[in-house]
Amino acid sequence: MRRLSALLCALALCAACSEPPQKEIDRARGALDAAKAAGADQYATEAYAAANAALQQAHDAVGQRDYRLALSLAVDANERALEAAKEAANGKARVRSEAEAALQPAEASLQQLRTRLRAAEAARVPAAKLAPARRAAGDAQQALQEARKGIAAGNYLAARDALEDLPARITAEIKGIDQALAARTRRRR
Q: What is the CATH number of domain 94-184?
């Protein structure tokens, strides 16, 4: 009786692996599509790429008629895709937080630049010396608008990238204005 049940189990296992594991491959493809829709291709790139590679290997195994390996790879691809979707949600929340946090210092820096520009104009600093700072103020305003649009549209990576190093660039222009103001003050003495 034991031998018969062992033989039946062995036959069931062989029969299960005698045709491609299409259900598991389809399930993995669905999980991968859901992960991409969750933003895994942008916010969890490594996990998404691993899931995609596992699914491709499952297809390759089917092509080589190694259905056991294909089954194992399809299950692995499914699990990796589910993990990529979770990582994407966490990554998206993190990048959103970073983008929103970068807005305030960038806005404050731009306001400070505009104040320094007005002070330099009042001190009659030549317009040619203020031209780079004016361009920087315009560029900063445009970057802030792009960042706000990106945040509103849910494109947090673009918003974060638009604000990257913006306060540092503005600070460099403020230093240039301060130097021009100092030079103007020395000439008056």
A: 1.20.140
